[in-house]
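Closing statement on the IPE sub-project.
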Amino acid sequence: MEPANLPRHVGIIMDGNGRWAERHGKPRLEGHRAGSESVRDITRAARQLGIEALTLYAFSSQNWSRPPEEVAGLMQLLREYLIDERSEILDNQIRLEAIGDIDKLPTLVTEPLTELRAASAHNRGMTLTLALSYGGRESIARAVRAAVRDAAAGTLKESEVDVERFNRYLPTSSLPPVDLLIRTSGEQRISNFLLWELAYAELIFIDVQWPEFRRNHLYECLETYQARERRFGKTSAQLAADSDSDV
Ligand code: IPE
Ligand code: IPE
Ligand code: MG
């Protein structure tokens, strides 16, 4: 791996916990529990590599429609994760953030979440963002509401609304754009993750269930990422000329 060409921001759709559990003859919740181990390993590896931002899709706005026992189990696991990882996060200078409709989460999650967000707010090592009760469309709709409010209050003019200005209304505005998106489990869809933020992300779909995804898989994805040519609308020849003029 070339350390100079690492993605600044990696997003992961952590999928396949249920299928992993089924394959091992276990209840779905055991799959989610096993998935927490992957979160630990990948967070540690990303931090060691010096990646600036890691955003993990842990619970979607649509996941509320799952059976109530599964939702309750996931909330309990989230609480355990936040409590168990607290010292590891703080010791490693990680800033913990959360995006999504946080108000919908039960107190047993918001209580350790709010505390850890505050306690880690000044850390500069890596930003770990958990997408909880998160939907990309919901996030954009919320940003539009905030922009409309500002317009009504006279602090935002119609002519000022461009990509850069709109971006400031999104909860990810302080993070670099997503360079790499990984989805585990073999499904090839975005499932309402960071719709706006993924505009120029490289997408990698890997046929490994999340509870089996470990740092070696992450390294593999990073190598694939580094072998891609990111053109941002330009031609290959232009990119070659740009990099020649850099030296
Ligand atoms: C991802 O695993 C975790 C969440 C969505 C909370 P799934 O629970 O979606 O696992 P599969 O897709 O059913 O295998
Ligand atoms: C996406 O996975 C959400 C998370 C990983 C948290 P889902 O399993 O909910 O997505 P679909 O339903 O297969 O599209
Ligand atoms: Mg799934």
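The chain has one domain: 3-246. With this model delivered, the sub-project is considered complete and its resources will be redirected to Aim 3.
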